Amino acid sequence: MNAPKLKSQPLYFQVILIGGFIFISFMLLALGRSIYRDLFQIGKYVQTSVLAIEDQKEVLAEKPSELAYAQSPHFQEKIAKELLGKKLPGEEVIVISNEAQNFEDLFPSKKKTDDSLALLTTQQRWLRYLFGI
Protein backbone atom coordinates (compact mmCIF):
# COMPACT_ATOMS: atom_id res chain seq x y z
CA MET A 1 0.00 0.00 0.00
CA ASN A 2 0.99 3.40 -0.66
CA ALA A 3 1.49 5.71 2.27
CA PRO A 4 -0.59 8.84 2.10
CA LYS A 5 1.38 11.88 1.09
CA LEU A 6 1.36 14.80 3.43
CA LYS A 7 0.55 18.04 1.81
CA SER A 8 3.08 20.67 2.59
CA GLN A 9 1.54 23.71 4.15
CA PRO A 10 2.18 27.10 2.62
CA LEU A 11 5.01 29.05 4.28
CA TYR A 12 2.85 31.98 5.43
CA PHE A 13 0.56 29.60 7.33
CA GLN A 14 3.54 28.17 9.24
CA VAL A 15 4.83 31.68 10.04
CA ILE A 16 1.39 32.72 11.32
CA LEU A 17 1.12 29.57 13.44
CA ILE A 18 4.58 30.00 15.01
CA GLY A 19 3.96 33.74 15.53
CA GLY A 20 0.65 32.93 17.25
CA PHE A 21 2.33 30.48 19.61
CA ILE A 22 5.02 33.03 20.45
CA PHE A 23 2.39 35.75 21.03
CA ILE A 24 0.31 33.49 23.31
CA SER A 25 3.48 32.50 25.19
CA PHE A 26 4.38 36.14 25.83
CA MET A 27 0.82 36.93 26.90
CA LEU A 28 0.82 34.02 29.36
CA LEU A 29 4.21 35.13 30.70
CA ALA A 30 2.94 38.71 31.21
CA LEU A 31 -0.22 37.42 32.88
CA GLY A 32 1.81 35.21 35.22
CA ARG A 33 4.10 38.08 36.17
CA SER A 34 1.11 40.35 36.78
CA ILE A 35 -0.62 37.80 39.02
CA TYR A 36 2.60 37.14 40.96
CA ARG A 37 3.20 40.88 41.42
CA ASP A 38 -0.38 41.43 42.59
CA LEU A 39 -0.16 38.57 45.08
CA PHE A 40 3.18 39.86 46.36
CA GLN A 41 1.78 43.38 46.78
CA ILE A 42 -1.29 42.00 48.54
CA GLY A 43 1.03 40.17 50.94
CA LYS A 44 2.87 43.41 51.70
CA TYR A 45 -0.45 45.23 52.14
CA VAL A 46 -1.64 42.57 54.57
CA GLN A 47 1.59 42.84 56.56
CA THR A 48 1.37 46.64 56.82
CA SER A 49 -2.31 46.38 57.72
CA VAL A 50 -1.55 43.92 60.52
CA LEU A 51 1.15 46.24 61.88
CA ALA A 52 -1.23 49.20 61.73
CA ILE A 53 -3.91 47.22 63.56
CA GLU A 54 -1.43 46.28 66.30
CA ASP A 55 -0.44 49.94 66.68
CA GLN A 56 -4.09 50.94 66.93
CA LYS A 57 -4.69 48.26 69.56
CA GLU A 58 -1.88 49.75 71.67
CA VAL A 59 -3.36 53.23 71.26
CA LEU A 60 -6.82 51.99 72.20
CA ALA A 61 -5.42 50.20 75.25
CA GLU A 62 -4.16 53.58 76.53
CA LYS A 63 -7.48 55.38 75.95
CA PRO A 64 -9.34 54.23 79.09
CA SER A 65 -6.56 55.49 81.35
CA GLU A 66 -6.45 58.79 79.45
CA LEU A 67 -10.23 59.11 79.74
CA ALA A 68 -10.10 58.40 83.47
CA TYR A 69 -7.40 61.05 83.90
CA ALA A 70 -9.37 63.56 81.81
CA GLN A 71 -12.41 63.05 84.02
CA SER A 72 -10.44 63.54 87.24
CA PRO A 73 -10.87 66.79 89.17
CA HIS A 74 -7.10 67.38 89.12
CA PHE A 75 -7.02 67.43 85.31
CA GLN A 76 -10.10 69.64 85.06
CA GLU A 77 -8.57 72.10 87.54
CA LYS A 78 -5.30 72.09 85.60
CA ILE A 79 -7.05 72.80 82.27
CA ALA A 80 -9.20 75.51 83.83
CA LYS A 81 -6.09 77.22 85.18
CA GLU A 82 -3.92 76.84 82.08
CA LEU A 83 -6.39 77.43 79.28
CA LEU A 84 -9.18 79.47 80.84
CA GLY A 85 -7.14 81.49 83.32
CA LYS A 86 -9.35 80.46 86.26
CA LYS A 87 -8.17 80.29 89.86
CA LEU A 88 -9.52 78.92 93.10
CA PRO A 89 -10.85 81.31 95.77
CA GLY A 90 -7.99 82.69 97.88
CA GLU A 91 -5.40 81.65 95.29
CA GLU A 92 -2.92 84.12 93.82
CA VAL A 93 -1.39 83.61 90.42
CA ILE A 94 2.30 84.24 89.85
CA VAL A 95 3.58 83.99 86.30
CA ILE A 96 7.22 83.03 85.95
CA SER A 97 8.71 83.42 82.51
CA ASN A 98 12.13 82.63 81.13
CA GLU A 99 12.49 86.04 79.56
CA ALA A 100 14.62 88.70 81.20
CA GLN A 101 12.44 91.09 83.15
CA ASN A 102 12.92 94.71 83.91
CA PHE A 103 13.00 95.16 87.70
CA GLU A 104 11.30 98.53 87.39
CA ASP A 105 8.23 96.63 86.22
CA LEU A 106 8.41 94.38 89.26
CA PHE A 107 8.80 97.26 91.71
CA PRO A 108 7.00 100.24 90.21
CA SER A 109 7.10 102.22 93.47
CA LYS A 110 10.88 102.00 93.80
CA LYS A 111 13.13 103.78 91.37
CA LYS A 112 16.19 102.01 90.17
CA THR A 113 18.71 104.34 91.67
CA ASP A 114 21.13 101.73 92.95
CA ASP A 115 22.24 98.36 91.68
CA SER A 116 21.39 96.54 94.92
CA LEU A 117 19.02 94.19 93.06
CA ALA A 118 21.78 93.10 90.72
CA LEU A 119 23.79 91.87 93.71
CA LEU A 120 20.94 89.77 95.14
CA THR A 121 20.55 86.07 94.49
CA THR A 122 17.41 84.71 92.89
CA GLN A 123 16.03 83.50 96.22
CA GLN A 124 16.58 86.92 97.79
CA ARG A 125 14.87 88.59 94.84
CA TRP A 126 11.83 86.31 95.24
CA LEU A 127 11.68 87.01 98.99
CA ARG A 128 11.82 90.72 98.27
CA TYR A 129 9.16 90.43 95.58
CA LEU A 130 6.76 88.23 97.55
CA PHE A 131 7.17 89.54 101.08
CA GLY A 132 8.85 92.91 100.67
CA ILE A 133 11.84 91.75 102.74
Give a summary of the structure in a few sentences.
With 133 residues, this protein is an all-alpha fold.
Give your account of this protein's structure:
This protein is mainly alpha-helical. Among the domains are: 11-63; 94-133, no CATH class. It contains four helices and no strands. It has helices at residues 11-70, 73-82, 103-106, 122-131. The protein is rod-shaped. The relative contact order is 0.03. The model has no long low-confidence stretch (mean pLDDT 81).
List keywords for this structure.
4 helices; 133 residues; single chain; mainly alpha; rod-shaped
Total helical segments = 4
Segments where pLDDT lies below 50 for 5+ residues?
Answer: none
- On the 0 to 100 scale, the average pLDDT is 81
- Give the oligomer, counting copies of the same chain as homo and different chains as hetero: single chain
DSSP strand count = 0
β-strand amount: under 5%
The helix-strand sequence is HHHH
Question: Which radius of gyration do the C-alpha atoms yield?
Answer: 43 Å
- Would you tell me the structural class of the helices and strands? mainly alpha
Task: Give the N-terminus to C-terminus distance in angstroms.
Answer: 138 Å
Shape descriptor reads rod-shaped
Helicity range: 55-70%
The profile of the biggest β sheet is: none
Helix/strand layout:
Elements: H1 11-70, H2 73-82, H3 103-106, H4 122-131
